[in-house]
């Protein structure tokens, strides 16, 4: 469900708004969280700038938007590229009302096997690109006393899966960046929040864990299924909108109840 016109007249930038396969069954355009977010914001009336390391993937998202948009190439590992993408958006539309920091990479190594190179790569993409993007957009928001940041996080930033130290640490740091912005600039009209995602049936999850693992992933969720990118996008749209005008510094957990459950053995 969309709320028509809720974001009319607003300009949004989605960092990590492209997507590539594998797609869901019957899906012509692979639907990752960033692409679903861009489509949802546009469906609610926003003009959307889509940033992705692959300009073609960003353009594919823009081509599917309900409103005119702009595709920009951005390398999350390159600080200058992160800043330049925001400048391109500002040059095109003069202001940004909404910035969604969605780009992220997973990791695989526990503490004993964690490598420095993987740690630095995770930090650059999952944290540094986000604060640099926010920093580049902040001044124009402060000038208008208005702006909303939404960071796309993970329950790995709150709970450990024992799988990847770099992913868990950087996702926790991402939430710290969000809270800093929220508290520091609240009195100047700036809000910052995060959606903290659990098991989502996204291309990233299918690449990392395989489509064949979907039943096992669904089994750990009290709701009995994986979430969808569209459901993640709905939560982002709420936090970006004036319906959340008195909400800032919060981590909205979107995980089907996983973080609320106590592990127990299956019934015999």
Automatic annotation (TrEMBL):
<comment type="similarity">
    <text>Belongs to the short-chain dehydrogenases/reductases (SDR) family.</text>
</comment>
<dbReference type="InterPro" id="IPR036291">
    <property type="entry name" value="NAD(P)-bd_dom_sf"/>
</dbReference>
<dbReference type="InterPro" id="IPR002347">
    <property type="entry name" value="SDR_fam"/>
</dbReference>
<keyword id="KW-0560">Oxidoreductase</keyword>
<dbReference type="Pfam" id="PF13561">
    <property type="entry name" value="adh_short_C2"/>
</dbReference>
<protein>
    <submittedName>
        <fullName>3-oxoacyl-ACP reductase</fullName>
    </submittedName>
</protein>
<dbReference type="GO" id="GO:0016491">
    <property type="term" value="F:oxidoreductase activity"/>
</dbReference>
């Amino acid at each position: 469900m969309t709320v028509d016109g809720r974001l009319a007249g607003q300009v949004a930038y989605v960092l990590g708004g492209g997507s590539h396969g594998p797609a869901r069954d019957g899906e012509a355009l692979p639907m990752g969280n960033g692409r679903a977010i861009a489509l949802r914001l546009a469906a609610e009336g926003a003009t959307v700038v889509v940033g992705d390391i692959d300009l073609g993937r960003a353009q594919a998202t823009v081509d599917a938007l309900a409103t005119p948009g702009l595709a920009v190439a951005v390398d999350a590992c390159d600080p200058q590229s992160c800043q330049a993408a925001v400048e391109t958006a500002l040059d095109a539309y003069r202001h940004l009302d909404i910035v969604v920091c969605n780009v992220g990479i997973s990791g695989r190594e526990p503490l004993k096997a964690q490598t420095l190179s993987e740690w630095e790569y995770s930090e650059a993409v999952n944290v540094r690109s986000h604060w640099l993007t926010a920093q580049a957009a902040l001044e124009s928001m402060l000038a208008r006393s208005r702006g909303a940041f939404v960071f796309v996080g993970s329950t790995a930033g709150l709970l450990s899966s024992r799988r990847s130290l770099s992913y868990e640490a950087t996702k926790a740091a991402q939430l710290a960046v969000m809270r800093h912005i929220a508290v520091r600039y609240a009195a100047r009209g700036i809000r910052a929040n995060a959606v903290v995602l659990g098991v989502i049936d996204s291309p990233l999850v299918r690449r990392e864990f395989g489509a064949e693992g979907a039943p096992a992933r669904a089994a750990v969720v009290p709701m009995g299924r994986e979430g969808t990118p569209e459901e993640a996008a709905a939560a982002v749209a709420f936090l970006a909108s004036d319906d959340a005008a008195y909400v800032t510094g919060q981590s909205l957990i979107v995980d089907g109840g996983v973080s609320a459950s106590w592990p127990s053995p299956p019934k015999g």
